[in-house]
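Regression check, NAI case 527:
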Amino acid sequence: MFKVLVMDGISDMGIQMLYEAPDVEVEKKNGLSEDELAAIIGEYDALLVRSATKVTERIMSAGTKLKVVGRAGVGVDNIDLEAATKRGIVVINAPDGNTIATCELTFAMMMAIARSIPQAYKKTVGGEWDRKTFVGVELRNKVLGVLGMGRIGSEVAKRAKAFGMQVIGYDPFLTEERAEKIGVKLGTVNDICAKADFITVHTPLTNETRHMISRPQFETMKKGVRIINCARGGIIDEQALVEAIDSGIVAGAAFDVFEQEPPAPDHPFLNHPKIIVTPHLGASTVEAQENVAIDVSEEVLHILREQPFKNAVNMPTVPANVLNALQPYFNLGEKLGLFLGQTVDGPVSEIVVNYAGDLVDVDTSPLTRHIVKGILSNQLEGVNIVNAMHLAKTRDVKVIVQQSSASPTFTNLVSVTLKTKQQQHLLAGTLLAGYGERIVQIDQYPVDIAPSGNLLLISHNDRPGIIGKVGTLLGSNDVNIATMQVGRKVIGGQAIMVLTTDKPTPKDVIVQLSQLPELTDVIELTL
Ligand SMILES: NC(=O)C1=CN([C@@H]2O[C@H](COP(=O)(O)OP(=O)(O)OC[C@H]3O[C@@H](n4cnc5c(N)ncnc54)[C@H](O)[C@@H]3O)[C@@H](O)[C@H]2O)C=CC1
Ligand SMILES: O=C(O)CCC(=O)C(=O)O
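Current build output:
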């Protein structure tokens, strides 16, 4: 039974599928301190949060059973991704569910500052009938600058067009073609500052975007510009904004997010007549909360049940067509890794993976993760496909991926060479139609082995009678041989024997085998 902890008031409707899952037990809690969460997180397999709960390094390390942290929303800045990756914890988000809600709040904010609605409301309910102070501006024919043209920025741009605005978009990933399709002009931050009547930001908060709008940008802005931030506090320099309003450059600002949330009671925005604020409500609609909770619950179930998943934030996204093409190879890749990892003693220094045949047409990096996971699992605990590449890097294991256009014998071929300071082994495997996964080469020897169960890998000199001696020794110790493969390059030269046995070979029998004079090496493998 998997235990899932749901925090931050995530929609009950949205997590219905978790309540209904027979293999899941759900607990809901709100407002736990870091100490309180750290004290209980060790019991749970999955943690679901919005933005209030900070999933810190401490929480991750206390979460000894934690397999997944689900963020019911877009931004994952409240989750320590590096700490998660190190521990092999998958972090997922729900990137699509709150796009419209946040876009609509942005528009509501834009219209509210264009017409000073909150300020006018406050006076009116206070008993004043002030029709002179609140003369607003129209949106029509105004220029809107959008910084960050992803999901939300693009939706804002679409709506702005419907209001008769001209839109200039800035985003390093926005191409001319896409800009044209959405009907926006491509511009730089400088263009936007110089031309825009309204500026809205829709980027994540990163080192690059922190204070991307600050004093130098305000100084070049058109007088009377209005600023909206429904993305993340810190993208716009709060102090510089207040100065720009007070000096008459900026006519008004609307903020849903703050550098520190909640803001301190004396925060300069809170009593400023030209700044309106909301308490991070971008995603707070019934629909968005249901959408993000559904999306994240679905993914959490996939991860707990070890089924394919998307939207992992600490792993590269794999498009569905690539995942479908690679899925059948994942087990083979892991088995090749497991096999090879058991053939060496010292620390692994290099892994060279070569993909041939059908596999050259796809991005094979997810398959490489499975191979590396298999190799490292022999030496390290807790390796999974999330942390495999990270663990390889932190242990100075070089992973080299190559492609050969064709395999002379097989339609697809995965060859892996594993190197330590002293040893080097090669293993190749394929997926054969009708036969499934096969190991087809060990070092220089062609073989045909199903990669599963208990195996004995024996190196020996090719002499008459050796197979009989090995068979007799195993038989007399009640180890039944299921299959046997012998590989050699030349008669009488070095050869290998691969046996599959119905049960593991006892240690003392391995010792007796190693003492047979014709055998040069005996390795027991479990796949
Ligand atoms: N107020 C709220 O409740 C909500 C806030 N958000 C915030 O809105 C942000 C945007 O959300 P989405 O549009 O869904 O994300 P997205 O990932 O679709 O779009 C973000 C865009 O920002 C662009 N970008 C990144 N660095 C940039 C830079 N230096 N300059 C210009 N553009 C840059 C990216 O290329 C991308 O196109 C999120 O990162 C999140 O922080 C999201 C949902 C709700
Ligand atoms: O969960 C929330 O309300 C915050 C939404 C948000 O900021 C996000 O999805 O990035």
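Comparison notes: The domain at 453-527 is CATH 3.30.70.260 (Alpha-Beta Plaits). The two ends are 26 Å apart (CA to CA). No diff flagged against the previous build.
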